Amino acid sequence: MNMIQKTLLALCLLFASCTPSALDKALRLAGDNRGELEKVLDYYSREETAKQKHHGKGRTDNSNEAYRAAVFLIENMPGHGALMGGCMPQYIAAVDSLYPDMPDPVRSVVYTIPQRLEEFAKDMSLQEDIHHIKADWLIAHIDNMMQARAECPWVAKLPFDLFCEYVLPYRFAQEPLIAQPDSSRFWWKSILETVDFYSTLAYSMDELRHIQRMHLGKSDEKYRYNIHLPVLEQKHIFDCLDDCYYNVAMLRAAGIPSCVDFVGDWPTRNGRHYWRVIMDEHYLFGEHPDMSAPRAAKVFRWTFSQPMVQDVTDKYIDVAEVSLKLDKKICRSTDEIYLAVFNTLQWKPIAKSRLINGRARFDKMGKDIVYLPVYFRGEEMLQADYPFLLDAEGRVRKLIPQDSVQSLTLYRKYPITLAKLSWSEKIVGCHIEASNHADFSHADTIHSITEPNAHLTWTEIRPEKSYRYWRFVIKERLNLGEMLFFDEHGNYLNGELIYHPSNKAEKMTKPATDGDVLTYTNAQEWIGMDFGKPTLVSAIRFITRTDDNGINPGQTYELSYWAQHGEQVVEQKVATADSISFHAVPRGALLWLKNLETGLEERPFIVDENRILYY
Questions:
Q1: Are residue 278 and residue 137 in the same domain, yes or no?
Q2: Fewer CB atoms inside 10 Å of the end CB: C or N, the chain?
Q3: 248 and 277 both lie in a single domain
Q4: 155 and 266 together in one domain
Q5: 229 and 95 in contact (C-beta within 8 Å)?
């Protein structure tokens, strides 16, 4: 080894010796609570020393795992804690008073509900575990988990790092910790008894979950559906995140490794999604039902270890690397570039890269998705370059507006999904009848519906006939958004809603005349109108169940596109029909049709060979 190598090695060793470990950092951050954490470490250190004296120093088993488990929890503790303050003390007391027998896994989830409501969360702050957790509580938790590891065959066979990450953690989110945990923390014992009883049971992690569910029965469902909570004006039903929290708490108490994976922002529709994952090689890496249909730009996993979020996109979908060359002006303005996806009428950043030599590089990006490169100036998000399509082959196609223009006629601002196609399909085969007899004897067929409405918009027919009774005769069940009748002057005709006796509940039929197209019937046999006397009906307008994303006459729309550094307006106009036309639209651009008056569902789109492709 030459002198330079020796010097470099010495510097590396010096740096390593001077660099505090994650445990040292955590203990320093603990401040006044450091003594509590050191008690935990001392407790397991003494326990390990005692075991070594009893068994001899030559032991090769995993007798130091309890100490290592304590180290894992403490060194990763910074950043973990409970959101407290505001309404939380009163809320917790009220929940405990209302539901004294609520099991801890449910209680912990219920505690988190106000934390996710902005009106309450704005008054809360993070009470970090590193400053507040007590030694006795943490030791009791670790002892329980280590007992499960010693006695449960399915916990014992787990690799230690997987056990630490997905079974050992004492919290799943920012829930307040329960001072005196109930017997649910020992669920692993009841499952072990079942496994021991059925000695030939060939169990997997998923089968263990079913055994646990068998023990629980439906005892928790009364809390998960329509539970009255002190801070809410209406009853609460567990959503996908509540269910994830509940399942993870329940599964870990049974010694079943689990976690929460999530899509923070869908790239082709509004919203986000969370789901529970069982860490079983036969369960995780196959096709996952939560990811089988939607496209995802990024999939993340919450972990207890730092940095508490892991990118697992490539475990679910085929991914690509994206490399972008940025304009010099942008490079002088920032050293970080983000990729954003369009969600709920705005671009939302989902991936970050440092600029190196004018380039940004992004790993594990979902394909067949439109991204917008952005950067931040303070709190303001700014566009860094043209949007681009990362196609199914992993190629970057910049969506650059061309000098040549085109004319477009648009019928919707949001794509129709397969699920929504059935709404319009259900009306095919129905027909409209009219009669002057209440039992519809001697009825005339006014109109037969032979095809669906492709855009989920209004259909109008002009019977120009006089009858007292009018009805839609239904093929099976009909989801009808509205049915309207008009006289020869275009005035709305009021009548009494009538329907077949099989439609027992008014809510099955009333939405057809409530003036809201987003409510809909679930009618059987037939539904109609009694005008009290023969009445000339000049027009009937009806709409099936709809998302109201078609073009509505009388409402104002704006078409825009993205240039290199921002959005540009093509034209703003009021719709006069169920379609709207624009001219001088740049070819090759990413476009956006906005309803300036109402709605939250809109998607950017491109025009490819005269076909609208939404992204």
A1: no
A2: N
A3: no
A4: no
A5: yes
Query: Backbone phi, then psi, for 455, in 5-degree steps?
Result: -115, 5
Domain with 589, as residue range(s), is 405-414+550-614
281 pLDDT above the threshold of 80: no
Please check whether residue 278 is in contact with residue 252, taking contact to mean a CB–CB distance below 8 angstroms.
no
76 and 204: one domain?
Answer: yes
- Average per-residue pLDDT for the chain: 90
Per-residue CA distances from 372 to 125, 267, 331 (Å): 33, 11, 16
Category of 60 on φ-ψ map: left (φ > 0), alpha (ψ -120 to 50) or beta = alpha
* Tokens (6 digits) for 364: 């594990």
Q: Please list, in sequence order, all residues whose beta carbon lies within 8 angstroms of the beta carbon of residue 590, skipping any fewer than 6 positions away.
A: 370, 387, 399, 561, 562, 604, 605, 606, 615
Other CB atoms within 10 A of residue 2 CB: 7
Task: Flag whether pLDDT at 92 surpasses 50.
Answer: yes
**Helix 135-151 × helix 34-55 angle, to 10°:** 40
Does 25 fall in a domain?
Answer: no
pLDDT digits (tens, 9 = 90+) for 41-51: 999 998 766 66
**Alpha carbon separation from 259 to 77, 114, 173 (Å, rounded):** 17, 22, 11
Q: What percent of the chain has pLDDT over 90?
A: 75
Query: How many whole angstroms from its chain centre is CA 150?
Result: 37
CB neighbour list of residue 345: distance below 8 Å, 6 or more residues apart: 600, 602
Judge if 134 and 68 occupy the same domain: yes
Q: How many domains does the chain have?
A: 5
**Do 175 and 283 sit in the same domain of this protein?**
no
Q: Where are the alpha helices (DSSP H) in 56-197?
A: 65-75, 88-98, 104-112, 118-121, 129-132, 135-151, 153-156, 160-166, 187-197
Residue 285 has a pLDDT of 43
Burial of residue 152, with CB atoms counted within 10 A of its CB: 0-12 exposed, 13-18 middle, 19 or more buried: buried
> Among residues 277, 280, 311, which one has the least CA distance to residue 291?
277
Q: What is the DSSP string of 219-284?
A: TTHHHHSSB--TT-SS-B---HHHHHHHHHHHHHHTT--EEEEEESS-SSSS--EEEEEE--TTTS
> Residue 97 pLDDT more than 60?
yes
**Separation between Cα atoms, residue 614 and residue 369, nearest integer Å:** 10
**What's the DSSP call for residue 493?**
P
Name the β-bridge partners of 409: 581
| CB-based contacts of 394, cutoff 8 Å, min separation 6 | 320, 321, 367
Contact 172, 246 (CB under 8 A): no
For residue 3, being part of any structural domain is answered with no
Q: What angle do CA 406, 409, 411 make, to 5 degrees?
A: 145
Question: What are the pLDDT digits (tens) for 353-410?
Answer: 999 999 999 999 999 999 999 999 999 999 999 999 999 999 999 999 999 999 999 9
